[in-house]
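Fold this sequence, please.
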Amino acid sequence: MKGRPYLPGGMDRPRDKDSHRPRRPPSQRRPGARVHLDTPGAIWYAPPSAPRSSPRATHRQPWWPLLLIAAGAWLLRIAGFFHRGGALGHPVDYDEGVYFSAAALLSQGLLPYRDYFFVHPPGIAVLLSPVAALSHGLGPALAFSVVRWLMPLAGALSTLLSGRIAQERWGTRAGLVAALAYAVYPEAVSTERGPFLEPLLNLTCLTLAWVSLRPTDNQRQTRRSDVLAGALLATACAIKLTAGAWVLAVAWARGMSREGSRVARVILVAAGVSLLWLGPFFLLAPDAMLQGLLRFQLLRPPDGDSSLTSRLLSILVDGRLGLTLVTAVGVTVALARTRQQDAGTERLFCAAWLLTVATFLASKSYWSQDNAHLAPTTAILTGLGADFIARKLHGARTQRIALAVTTLLILTTLPGVLRAAKQKDRFLLPLGDTLRSTVPTNSTLCAFEPAWAIAADRLPGLPRGTPAFVDPYGLMLNDALSAPTRFPNAETAFQGAHSQRTALQLLPRCDVLLLLGRGEWQLSDSSEQWVREHYTRDAELWRRNP
């Protein structure tokens, strides 16, 4: 046994035969943990264990390598804007137009649920509204570009937080790998170029984890940490309902550490802050809000990739097989450490990753961009996996080789990310110019993709009283739910008469229609016939007959 005993009562231990120096008295010995044995009258001093992380210890861990990776992540995201078209020259997704329009309309007094149909919690509209409000002075197109330039900053901050969380738990090596994994995660890079849900959702969840996992010195700091964690948890759920996976993950991570009181405090604060997020909108339009957040999400027809195998391949394999291999090691290690009381980080991110994957597999709709919300958990678990592999190897040189191989596996995603950054949208800017020059400002334009109107410096629902076509896709699918039968997919639902009900009430109030491929997909044959009877086609536009 490596500990040194001393006899109580001031009696010193006899000298060793081969030593001429007396033993140090207990008060001068190196501090160690006292271990009481069955040996009568003796107390053994165990050698000191490795120091636990503390707020003071974490300050000595370097930030600058993580800052360099975060800067690289920012450059990787804004690389899509380095061409003549700028931020609007990179392909714009349908969802970007919906979320930006909701935020811009909120800044001008038009509320989701009350004034137009909306299928997500109001968090994204509220959080983006201060920047989207620039559309009132600069115009929607320029304000949208500003938002697109700001979103990469959220990606850079998430990269930094991913690295810092792993660094504080397992060391700088794990932190560097985690930051790198987030920086080059394909869907995170693409969504963090625009006003999607995932950039703010990921940043909120990582901030929640960082605040919750940092050690505290006293009860006051602990309470403050729990209150902030609860507020962040509510904010995440106010951005996207799938953040509910983090509620369960936080409860499990803390519960396994026998910190039930902290779990209760976090959940109670989250419930209270959720009321602040949702309450005002619910009071103004309770039925419409329940339809968008509950009825639509639970009963909507399937859409996107419906095959379970295809979803798994998209989540684990497509362009990221090397990254997934390292992540799998991290998941395995985290599961093996589940019962360790101090393994809160492992439990939190492992549970959040597993629950998020399960949510994607069970969801009625799934698109590859949804994978962006796996970036935070994947990054942390990849850092854990890389650190575990290196620690299992002996010798500094062998560990460096293992780290280099791990880095190369993670960077296998980079070629696809760089190819995606080179994509250009050669359609949107010319369309915006055409709409500006051919549609009078006093004419009501109804576009089946909000981004088309944004490119022409227009917002749906403005001026007040015009049709608020913020999310025609969600609006028409929600109408389809009133049919007596359930549809196998969204395309079939759009061919039903029920899905056309509200659209046919709004279209007569439009002076100019912009259908293109999406409008033609969402309108049934009979609705298209109605359009041909009441409107005349003019290139891409349909103008109402006099």
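Strands lie at 4-6, 33-36, 43-46, 303-304, 365-366, 445-447, 512-514, 535-538, 541-544. Residues 1-22, 26-58 have pLDDT under 50 and may be disordered.
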